[in-house]
């Protein structure tokens, strides 16, 4: 029931002024204590604010009330006893105190500097650890070109890489010198005409290209060590084909066939004697590395089409007639012929797989490629027709009729 406006409230006593002031002061003190008891907002995860090792003297009695109670229980502080100090002793104590303070301050400064340097070093290491690592340069993958022929017993895929590595080593043994200076009766042109005739023999007997290349190598290595007359040059060439046929062919031609193609200019005894002379001069070491084998291997690495491979074979077969190129290693000659064929067909250049299997970088081949392009463009001897007529046939995609590259165009293609 509401109390009337003019009635007196008997149950409620009015507070007197002094008590109100005391209550208000107590509330303010409690509010101040609660504010001081709060944790610092800058403290991590609400943890209490860090203090120094000896405590914060200014607010120790407020934040730790039990200390104040303990001190109050001890009673009033004792009066300090004054001790008389001699002026000289006081002066010395003051000097010693300053020295100790300076020493402590210098030690603190050095400690601070060392701590800051250590902290800086740690910061740099942390920054270096956080920095993103440089992306690793990934080398293009090398294709295993023998992978698809593991099940073919005639491909020798398991030993192919070792076989060609062995042939690369044997190249160093069969490097041809300039032997025409030691041949008084034959010339470079005679040799070129003989090789052109050997190409015709290979076509007529339907021999493999390996037989032709090996026969030319056998003839050159024999002429390095034996001086001969021009009337015996064709006999040496035909005998070299006979030996190469026995080495490469399943069914080599007989001796009478070689006598026939020489128009019976030589007798059977002469042919057999020349065969013995060549084999003994070469110490029966006739497994000479030839460019044609390397060419087929490198074309497989480039996934070259049959037309591109035939173009490279045409360029490589033209080199058989050139005495200036007999000193070139077979693998380098094959690589350069393939690179020129790729550029003529406007195909991709020397890829990592070719570089891996051939052992030649793209920067090593341009000088020889330019020489081959010059041979293809300008060296047209009317007496040497066998190679060009052979590769003008449709069986060989008529690659001999393909227009060669101009020198500026070839240089631009090699740089791309």
UniProtKB/TrEMBL annotation:
Molecular function, one GO term: cyclin-dependent protein serine/threonine kinase regulator activity
Amino acid composition bias (Polar residues), ranges on this chain: 102-117
A Pfam family matched in the record: Cyclin_N
Transmembrane segments: none
Residues annotated as domain Cyclin-like: 196-280, 293-377
BP GO terms, sorted: cell division; mitotic cell cycle phase transition
Residue ranges of the region described as Disordered: 23-80, 100-151
Domain Cyclin C-terminal: 289-405
Chain intervals with Basic and acidic residues compositional bias: 27-36, 118-128
Entry keyword set: Cell cycle, Cell division, Cyclin
Domain of life (superkingdom): Eukaryota
The family this protein is said to belong to: Belongs to the cyclin family.
Protein name: G2/mitotic-specific cyclin-B3
Native organism: Pogona vitticeps (central bearded dragon)
Lineage start: Eukaryota, Metazoa, Chordata, Craniata, Vertebrata
